[in-house]
């Protein structure tokens, strides 16, 4: 495996480090928290430097979509990014995954789907055929995106949510955990729960 620099030393960074079978491939872990010294047995360098002491590519191990976006845009001109995919993930040969993205254990990414840059596909999420996932999106653990779903840049899809076929979710939206999204959502929108059940009860 190629050598990697890890940006961030939080819980999400631990999840990413755990995906890497050869920890010797991690040449640096960096964080702005000056109180951090080690993470999972690896030394943490603080603060994050503007220029890294080696030319190895980066992965931004920060769960917050906006913070991850800010770091990526600051660093994109001078650094390369690596995509990390766990061996247990099932990825269609026709699917595309952008740079700096992370695909966790047991993710399924189906035919002709496209995933942008610096995306998190978290544990056991399922993305069906012809889906589009924009840059800096986080698809939470156990989510299901049915066919032809579109997710705009920076959106958070909470754990265990389901998005029905052909639904378009805008940029920088928040979908609460366990939600069922049945219709399009505009940029910056929020969706919590199952509105289909709510409407039926009224």
Q: Give the N-to-C terminal Cα separation.
A: 56 Å
Provide the number of structural domains.
Answer: 2
Q: Which CATH top level class of the largest domain fits? A: Mainly Beta
Major sheet strand order:
6-9-12-15-18-21-23
Mean pLDDT: 93
Bulk shape: globular
Residue share in helix: 10-25%
> Ranges with pLDDT <50 over ≥5 residues?
none
Secondary structure tally: strands: 23
How much of the sequence lies in strands comes to 25-35%
CATH superfamily of the largest domain: Hexapeptide repeat proteins
Helix and strand content put the structural class at alpha/beta
The appropriate CATH architecture of the largest domain is: 3 Solenoid
Task: Give a written overview of the molecule.
- Residues 4-74 form the PglD N-terminal domain.
- Belongs to the transferase hexapeptide repeat family.
- Pfam families: Hexapep, PglD_N.
- The chain contains three helices and 23 strands.
- The model has no long low-confidence stretch (mean pLDDT 93).
- Helices cover 13% and strands 27% of the residues.
- It has 202 residues and is α/β, with parallel strands linked by helices.
- A seven-stranded parallel beta sheet has the order 6-9-12-15-18-21-23, with no helix packed on it. A six-stranded parallel beta sheet has the order 7-10-13-16-19-22, with no helix packed on it. Strands 3-4-2-1-5 form a five-stranded mixed beta sheet.
- It folds into two domains: 4-75, Rossmann fold; 84-190, Hexapeptide repeat proteins (UDP N-Acetylglucosamine Acyltransferase, domain 1, 3 Solenoid).
- The N and C termini lie far apart (56 Å).
- The chain has helices at 11-19, 65-75, 195-201; strands at 4-7, 26-30, 38-39, 42-45, 58-60, 84-85, 90-91, 96-97, 102-103, 108-109, 114-115, 120-121, 126-127, 132-133, 138-139, 144-145, 150-151, 156-157, 162-163, 168-169, 174-175, 180-181, 190-191.
- Strand 1, helix 1 (11-19) and strand 2 form a beta-alpha-beta unit.
């Amino acid at each position: 495996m190629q050598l990697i620099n890890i940006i961030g030393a939080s819980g999400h960074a631990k999840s990413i480090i755990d995906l890497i079978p050869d920890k010797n491939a991690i040449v640096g872990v960096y964080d702005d928290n000056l109180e951090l010294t080690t993470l999972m047995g690896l030394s943490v360098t603080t603060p994050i430097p503007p220029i890294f002491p080696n030319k190895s590519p980066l992965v931004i191990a920060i769960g917050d979509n906006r913070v991850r976006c800010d770091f990526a845009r600051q660093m994109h001109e001078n650094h390369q990014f690596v995509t990390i995919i766990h061996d247990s993930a099932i990825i269609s040969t026709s699917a595309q995954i952008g740079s700096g993205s992370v695909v966790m254990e047991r993710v399924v990414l189906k035919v002709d789907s496209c995933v942008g840059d610096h995306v998190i596909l978290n544990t056991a999420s399922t993305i069906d055929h012809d889906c589009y996932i924009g840059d800096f999106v986080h698809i939470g653990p156990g989510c299901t995106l049915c066919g032809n779903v579109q997710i705009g840049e920076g959106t958070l899809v909470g754990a265990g949510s389901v998005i029905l076929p052909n639904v378009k979710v805008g940029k920088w939206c928040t979908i609460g955990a366990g939600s069922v999204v049945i219709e399009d959502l505009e940029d910056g929108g929020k969706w919590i729960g199952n509105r289909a059940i709510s409407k039926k009860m009224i």
